[in-house]
Amino acid sequence: MYAVYTACKEYAGAVTALAAAEKALTKQLSSSYEALVTARNAYYTLSDTLTASREALKKVTALNKLGKAEYSEVKDKQNDYEQMQLETIDTLAAYNELLYAFERLTCGGATKYLQGVGISTRTGAGGDSYAEVDRINEPYYYINTEIENMVFVFGVSIPDDFEPEITHFEIWYEGVQIGERTPISRQLRHLALDYGETNELTVRFFNDTSYVDQCVIDTSVARDVLKLKGAVIKTETEKKVGTYTVTTSSLGRVSTSALTITPDRKTGIAYFSIAYGDGKTVFTPEPVPVEDSFTYLTLLIQSLDGATLTLYDADKEKLYTGRFDTAAQTVMAVLP
């Protein structure tokens, strides 16, 4: 009975300790979240102020060029703008520290809610770094942010054997091109975008100056596959290895044909044999040198469409099985 009493007492103590720990953690989470939101709002406010300062600088610079503003006024606005840039970067850095502290506190549980707002000095929009991660064998894009320069970096990876060939890309946001057309071997660097109601960018792809395709991507995802309409790559099943001619002559009621095969250079073809239909009817018991014509009764082989060729090298070793392309009068070899 005493053992039960002791166990109950220990259990009650554990429950009290757990409740206290939960309360402390909840208070810490609440405090951290409030600090995070405050820092974010401060950054947004400074960003708006920075934009206004930039516009004021542009305006006074234009007035100075017209002779309606003193250089000292331009200098003052320039100093204000530079100071505002520094304050914005400091605020952004503070927000970044709070963000990742909150992420650690939640053991990664906040990632899906904070996706797209990672703002370390060199980070992907969804938290990916420049370090190589899982390899993708399809066309894909990646986005990184360099806060120290207040720019985002966009790049694509296209497999070497991808068809149609892609050499350049462009980025468009709400009908406005961002930056210049960029070779796929390089990255596009641009000032960080202030997205409106959508996080979507359109990426257009080109082969030199020819348009190929385009994809819409979600910038909150730092790295993803590009859904490009790749060409269907046809596997070659045969190749041309020569040409042929057929000369037909009549002697009374009998018609004969003389077949001459001319191999292409460097094919190594020196001999040939011909079978017909199911391949069991052989018209050339021995391989025929390509220098010689094969003469046959036209009645026996009315069309070369149904004939099967076997092509040999100078040692009479088999090189290919082939056929006659009667439309082009070429000899086609079946590839292994």
UniProtKB/TrEMBL annotation:
Phylogenetic classification of the source organism: unclassified sequences, metagenomes, ecological metagenomes
Name used for this protein in its record: Uncharacterized protein
Organism: bioreactor metagenome
Single GO MF annotation: efflux transmembrane transporter activity
